[in-house]
């Protein structure tokens, strides 16, 4: 009994969206106090955050615009992913992992909208 194409596609998505960026973060020794938990929950989006900051010269409004655009791109790529799943197996209700991956990608896009400014230290009283 072989592995179904949807399981292969799911594992490929996991490798592309989480494992490869996480390996890149550990190799470059990127530890960012502003994003520590989000950095490990959503490593691909962390890479995008660094790219957006580099492109915009750390201008917050431009970074926010890029992040909002990435949400829509993620949404449409997620719909494409769900369509690919439905081509290989018509009943998507048998594959909740496809919906979980789709939601994970949407949450990861929104997770970086709320962040402290670079260089500021927030202390509790």
From TrEMBL:
This is Uncharacterized protein. The keyword Transmembrane helix applies. Keywords: Membrane, Plasmid, Transmembrane, Transmembrane helix. The chain crosses the membrane at residues 6-25, 61-86, 98-115.
């Amino acid at each position: 009994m072989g592995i179904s194409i949807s399981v292969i596609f799911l594992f490929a998505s996991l490798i592309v969206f989480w494992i490869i960026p996480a390996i890149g973060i550990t190799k470059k020794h990127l530890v960012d106090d502003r994003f520590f938990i989000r950095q490990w929950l959503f490593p691909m989006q962390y890479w995008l955050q660094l790219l957006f900051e580099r492109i915009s010269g750390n201008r917050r409004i431009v970074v926010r615009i890029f992040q909002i655009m990435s949400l829509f791109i993620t949404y449409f790529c997620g719909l494409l992913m769900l369509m690919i799943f439905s081509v290989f197996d018509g009943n998507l209700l048998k594959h909740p992992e496809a919906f979980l991956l789709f939601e994970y990608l949407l949450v990861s896009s929104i997770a970086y909208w709320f962040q402290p400014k670079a260089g500021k230290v927030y202390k509790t009283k």
